[in-house]
Specification:
Helix 3 crosses helix 14. Strand 7 and strand 8 form a beta hairpin. The longest helix is centred in the C-terminal third of the chain and has 26 residues. It contains 14 helices and twelve strands. It has a seven-stranded mixed beta sheet, with helices on both faces. Among the domains are: about 140 residues, Leucine Dehydrogenase, chain A, domain 1 (Rossmann fold, 3-Layer(aba) Sandwich); about 150 residues, NAD(P)-binding Rossmann-like Domain (Rossmann fold, 3-Layer(aba) Sandwich), CATH 3.40.50. It is of the alpha/beta class. The protein binds nicotinamide-adenine-dinucleotide. The site of nicotinamide-adenine-dinucleotide (NAD) has 24 residues, from helix 7 and strand 7.
């Protein structure tokens, strides 16, 4: 299959927002939209920047910056995660919110795209401090969020406990319990079965679909995973359970490799005990750079953005890259992978399983009726495979990469919503 790139070339060390804008510009050009529509699609509808002061456990005070961006709400309420990471800034949140817009449209959910973040390093704070940061941030952005306006979920550095604090803060201030204001919350307060592993299960579904298209199967396939958090850790576990051989994994501290396959269950116990994959006795140490260059069938970057760039992309030896993280490949990295014949299943499709089950959780919370784990697993697989088939079909028909095909589908659905609704006033 010949593919043409529809994204403009851009420099190395590209910011996530520059990557997101370059991708959008390519899709807009391919779809033939005018400058007015391009500006509508590129510009966030609303954004807020808040101060988040924290009284620390020792009595001192520090201040963090927090953000919430609703990139687009034409197809429904804003939907997107909350990130706690020291590098969070308004542009990163804008990029992540834009990707949420296309992602929700690609898997055809009735949502727009949003994202939030606080520039805080969660590893430097006690649980009590993180609770105070979460509650203060929530109360500062309260006018913008709600079950029908903007619905949060976990992302890097946050988890189901964070969502319980957001839900409680919002509910206490409204005077009654409103579970649908967040997704990815604990089951005990209205969370959905299957949400914790949904992003990772979706990654495995699209990997399997891509392998199937190439006439291959998951069993016996070798996999390397960067990032061993909620997404990467569960993905490694599901890959191993499904008969793939997970030969290398890493986190921010380093990595571990075993050519015969890592014992992922034992590795998860090691991480639970020590906080890192480093020091695991069932393999040899490996750096993050070496992990990206692993001689494997499938590479899953599931940590942070921008790791596959002009320097690292040429070292990739996997035949298939499945993007668990948001924005792991820069525009230059993308072009290099394409030139080397490496297929990339893009983030906006590959990691959409999380928002799909978030949608199921929101639907369940709204009707106060909960589905079984089997129902959720089946509906998730159906949506992910259908979205993959849509994107792969579009790629074949138009000679595009999977990323460009996915973006044209997502961007077109959002543009159609704008066109059908018309412009007020
Ligand atoms: P997490 O905080 O649970 O885990 C992040 C992992 O990445 C950790 O193992 C951490 O050590 C590692 N990491 C951080 N910086 C690194 C670096 N410089 N090099 C190597 N490893 C590094 O976060 P998560 O929820 O698993 O999210 C990971 C990625 O997946 C993010 O890009 C996030 O936006 C994306 N994502 C998450 C979800 C979700 O449901 N949680 C859904 C879609 C996309």
């Amino acid at each position: 299959m010949t593919t043409q790139s529809i994204t403009a070339p851009t420099p190395t060390h590209q910011s996530p927002l520059a990557t997101a804008h370059a991708q959008l510009a390519g899709a807009v050009e391919h779809l033939g939209y005018d400058d007015g529509m391009h500006a509508m699609l590129a510009t966030p509808r609303r954004e807020i920047h808040v101060a988040v002061p924290l009284r620390r456990d020792d009595g001192s005070t520090v201040l963090f910056h927090g953000f919430r961006v609703q990139h687009n709400v034409s197809r429904g309420p804003g939907k997107g995660g909350l990130r706690f990471h020291p590098s969070v800034d308004i542009d990163e949140v804008r990029a992540l919110a834009m990707w949420m817009t296309w992602k929700c449209a690609i898997v055809d959910l009735p949502y727009g795209g949003a994202k939030g973040g606080v520039a805080v390093d969660p590893s430097q704070h006690s649980a009590a401090e993180l609770e105070r940061v979460t509650r203060r941030y929530t109360s500062e952005i309260m006018p913008m969020i709600g079950p029908d306006t903007d619905i949060m979920a976990p992302d890097m550095g946050t988890d189901e406990r964070t969502m319980a604090w957001v839900m409680d803060t919002y509910s206490v201030n409204r005077g009654y319990t409103i579970p649908a204001v967040v997704t990815g919350k604990p089951i005990a307060v209205g969370g959905s079965l299957g949400r914790g592993t949904a992003t990772s299960a979706g990654i495995v579904h699209v990997t399997e679909a891509a392998l199937r298209e190439a006439g291959e199967q998951l069993e016996g396939t070798t996999v390397a995973v960067q990032g061993f958090g909620k997404v990467g850790g569960h993905a490694a576990q599901i890959f191993a359970r499904r008969g793939a051989r997970v030969v290398a994994v890493s986190d921010q501290y380093g990595g571990v490799r075993a050519d015969d396959g890592l014992d992922v269950a034992r590795l998860l116990e090691h991480v639970a005990a020590t906080g890192s994959v480093v020091g695991f006795d069932g393999g040899d140490p490996v750096s993050n750079a070496e992990l990206l260059a692993s001689d494997v069938d499938v590479l899953v970057p599931a940590a942070i953005q921008g790791v596959l760039d002009a320097e690292t992309a040429p070292t990739v030896r996997a035949r298939l890259v499945v993007e668990g993280a948001n924005g792991p490949t820069t525009t230059e990295g993308d072009a290099i992978l394409a030139k080397n014949g490496i297929t990339v299943v893009p983030d906006v499709l590959a990691n959409a399983g999380g928002v799909v089950v978030s949608y199921f959780e929101w639907v369940q919370a709204n009707q106060a009726y909960w589905w079984t784990a089997e129902e959720i697993a089946q509906k998730l697989e159906h949506r992910m495979v259908a979205a993959y088939d849509d994107v792969a079909g579009q790629a074949r028909r138009e000679g595009l990469s999977l990323r460009d095909a996915a973006l044209t589908i997502g961007v077109k659905r959002v543009a159609e919503a704008h066109q059908i609704r018309g412009l007020y006033p």
